[in-house]
C-alpha cells in the first residue's frame, strides 16, 4: 500500500477544534466612523497650520486710484504639524514538535494520496494537518484582533481625553491634540443624569449652540454607552407624554414602561435625536486582558461609560467651516498608515514568517504602521453626565 510504516501513523494527540466562550461587545467604530485610513508615503507626515490670514476680518477701503493695502501676515499664525507613524506588531512562535508533526503528517498524507481512507487509522485522515492549519488561522485572527484593538484604543483615547498617552513600562509618550479645557468632561447644564430632573434636549442644544458660537460648526454625532442612553426616558420631561398628570404634577411613582405601550428607552432616544439634530451612536466595546498566572479576565472599555462625546459630521471636511479653510487629505481626523517592507511596501496590515534563524522554531507575525491624527480636536466636546 505504501512505503511508510504504520508505526509512523500512530499519534497520541488528536485535535477536536476549539471551544469559545461568549464574548462581550468588541466592535470597532474608530476606522469606520471617526478616523478612516489615509495612506502616506513615509513614516513622517507634515501639514501646514494657518491660524489666521486673508480669509478673516474686514477688507480695507481705498480710493479709486490709490494703491491697495498690502496684505499683512502674522508669522505667529502660521505653523506646521507633524505626525510620526508608529509600528505596532506581535508574533507567535511554534515549537519543534508542532512543526515536525505537521510536516510529517503532511508528508505522509501526500504519500498516501489515493489510498482508501477506510484502511487508515481513524486519527489519520487529514485531521492532524487540518487541526494545525486551523490553529494557525485562529492565531492569525487573534493577532489581527490585537492590532485592531490597538488602533481602536488610539482613536478612542483621543476622543475620550483629547490626547493619547502611552506607557508600557519601556516606552512612554503623550500626544496632545488640543481640546480646550472647557470642552473636556463638562457637566450637563441641567445637572447629572442620576435622577429625574435632567433635560437631555436642553443640554444637547446648549452644547450645540456653544460650539456654533465658538467655531461655526454644530456637533452632529454623539457617542454614548447604552447606560447613558437609557437615562433619557427617566427624565420627568417625558412623563407628560403619558397623560398621567394630576393637578399639574405627575402622579408618582410612574414607570412609563408598564403604562404606555410602545414607549421605551429607544423611543426617547429617537425623540432627542430629532429635536437636537444629532445622531446617537451606541458604543460599549471593550478589549479583554488577563494578568499572567491569573484566571480572571478584565473587560476594559475604550471610552468612559458615563460620558457623552460630541463630534462634527463625518463629512465636515468637505462642507461648511472646514471646507473653507482645510485643503489637506486629513480633514477632521484620519489614521495615517505607512508602507512596510513585509507588506511589499504597501500601507496597511502586513504579515511575516521567519523559520531561518532557528531550524527548530517557526515564527509568524502580524503588524501595521499606523497612527491617528486630529487637527480639529477643538471641534469635539465631552460631557460627563453621571
Give a description of the structure.
The protein is of the alpha+beta class and 386 residues long. The chain has a single domain (24-52, 78-384), classed as Alpha-Beta Complex (phage-related protein like fold), CATH 3.90.1690. Helices cover 25% and strands 23% of the residues. The protein is built from eight helices and 17 strands. The chain has helices at residues 30-34, 96-111, 127-161, 200-215, 226-229, 256-259, 265-276, 320-325, and strands spanning 37-39, 44-50, 78-84, 86-94, 163-167, 172-176, 221-224, 245-246, 249-250, 279-282, 286-289, 298-301, 307-311, 334-337, 349-354, 362-373, 381-384. Strands 1, 4, 14, 15 and 16 form a five-stranded mixed sheet that branches. A four-stranded mixed sheet has the order 10-7-13-17. A hairpin with a 2-residue loop joins strand 8 (245-246) and strand 9. It is globular.
By helix and strand content, what is the structural category?
A: alpha+beta
Instruction: Report the end-to-end length measured between terminal Cα atoms.
Output: 74 Å
- Helical content, roughly? 25-40%
Shape: globular
User: How many alpha or pi helices?
Assistant: 8
CATH class: Alpha Beta
**Total domains, how many?**
1
Mean pLDDT: 76
H/E element order: HEEEEHHEEHEHEEHHEEEEHEEEE
**CATH fold-level assignment:** phage-related protein like fold
Largest beta-sheet characterization: 5 strands, mixed
- Beta-strand percentage range: 15-25%
DSSP E strands, number: 17
Q: What is Rg?
A: 29 Å
Unreliable residue runs: 4-12, 52-56, 66-78, 317-321
CATH architecture: Alpha-Beta Complex
